[in-house]
Amino acid sequence: MRDTSRRTVITGLGAGLAMAAGGACAAPGGRRIGYAIVGLGRYAELIMSKFAECDHARLTALVSGTPEKLARFGETYGVPASHRYSYADFDTIRDNPDVDVVYVILPNALHAEYTVRAARAGKHVMCEKPMAVSSSDCRTMIEACQAAGRKLMIGYRSRFEPYNRLAIDLARKGFVGPTRIVTSDHGFNAQPNQWRLDRALSGGGSLMDIGIYSLNAVRYLTGEQPVEVSAVESTDRNDPRFRTVEDRITFLLRFPSGIEATCVSSYSSGHNIYRVTGTKGWIELEPATAYEGQRMFVHRDGRTEERRLTPSKGQHAGQLDHFAECILNDTRPLVPGEEGLADLRVIEAIYRSAREGRRITLTA
Ligand code: NAD
CA-CA distance, 191 to 283, in Å (whole number)? Predict the structure, then answer.
């Protein structure tokens, strides 16, 4: 239990700083960038509802294999029948000038194919995490977007979440002294009978889906790339959920400056927390990467303070607007394809370490 009685609450500090870093430049001429959503599942449903909060992005097209969903969401969000596509006629989206961005929200194993097809159709691409199921697929996606002269961004929404932005700023500026240790735990109890538990569609288990938040957070909190990985996997293969994918995988990362990170990834227990410990104190977020409800505690000089921010825009709208502004102003996204590739390279090393029972060194 927390000892809240000894904690001071600091309200509002860093909110402006945090949101400004999300992309502050104005869109010229007020043009809104048009997004097509590919795959109308649960997360897509949430994303579609967030365009209402956007200043620079709008929903202009839908892609699905289910005509009923195309009709239902088309009517809800005012997307006309002419802007609704099946997977078979997806490539004709090239002829739709109202679509600037294709946002891929499909099962992981389909990300590469739809990113490449979207780039070839002349569209910019936002792709959900994990970017793909292998680092070689990530490279193919990056090359396809480069060849088409189009931008690629990965849906790392926490980079647009104000508490996470403040944590990055405080940690990297040494507010609690130089960082020594980061712990980052992410997990949930996976429901049976879903594509996430089918390796052919997911590429892996908890690490691909939720453990990637542990990994991505330690990378953004430190601003460094890991040089060494050790991992231990623990999966009950008698549990019908885990016939083809892993349940728990715990990993240790070493960074060039000497920082160490210990991370949990789980499909059988709930976790959503990280703590950055420096020589003079620590910064903690719980929940850390949830859709909402972040709480931040900062401990320094023997005192623990709660930081409270009042953000003007949510992380999902922040993410959609950021990529729109990158296109309008021809700037590089905060989380380009290379970020997704960096995570996939570490994920592959984590799996290899667990499989081979040894430390894996990562080269630049
Ligand atoms: P979901 O199962 O709810 O939706 C997946 C959609 O893909 C469904 O509409 C399904 O019909 C469609 N689909 C097309 N081809 C398919 C096929 N061959 N097999 C199965 N489904 C197929 O999944 P979701 O939770 O929306 O996840 C989609 C993607 O979004 C994943 O990559 C996931 O990692 C990512 N995601 C990201 C976040 C985030 O916070 N950034 C949250 C949830 C999901």
Answer: 32
Q: 108, exposed or middle or buried, with CB in 10 Å at 0-12, 13-18, 19+?
A: buried
Average pLDDT over residues 189-218: 98
Give per-residue pLDDT as tens, 146-158: 999 999 999 999 9
Residue whose structure tokens are 């500090």: 13
Atom of ligand 1 nearest to the CA of 155: 41
User: How many Å apart are CA 41 and CA 28, to the nearest integer?
Assistant: 33
Atom of ligand 1 nearest to the CA of 208: 34
Please give the helix or strand (H or E) that residue 181 lies within, else none: strand 179-189
Q: Can you tell me which residue has the tokens 């991992």?
A: 231
The residue annotated as part of the active site, out of 213, 220, 274, 351, is: 213
pLDDT of residue 33: 98
> What tokens were used for 317?
């709208």
- Residue of 104, 128, 335 to test ligand 1 pocket, by largest number of atoms within 8 Å of CB: 128
Do 58 and 201 share a domain, yes or no?
Answer: no
- Give the residue numbers spanning the domain of 275: 7-15+158-312+335-361
Inter-residue contact 180 to 42 (CB < 8 Å): no
Domain of 81: which CATH number? 3.40.50.720
CATH classification at residue 210: 3.30.360.10
pTM for the predicted model, two decimal places: 0.94
Q: What's the rounded Cα separation, in Å, for the pair 175 and 170?
A: 5
Same domain? For 172 and 282 the reply is yes
User: Could you tell me the end-to-end alpha-carbon distance of the chain, in angstroms, rounded to an integer?
Assistant: 41
Q: Give nearest CA residue, ligand 1 atom 1.
A: 41
Query: Are 99 and 185 part of one and the same domain?
Result: no
For residues 127 and 345, give the distance between their C-alpha atoms in angstroms, rounded to a whole number.
17
What pLDDT does 93 receive?
98
Q: Does residue 271 form part of some domain?
A: yes
Same domain, 80 and 33: yes
Q: Is there a domain that residue 73 lies in?
A: yes
What is the rounded average pLDDT for all residues in the chain?
Answer: 93
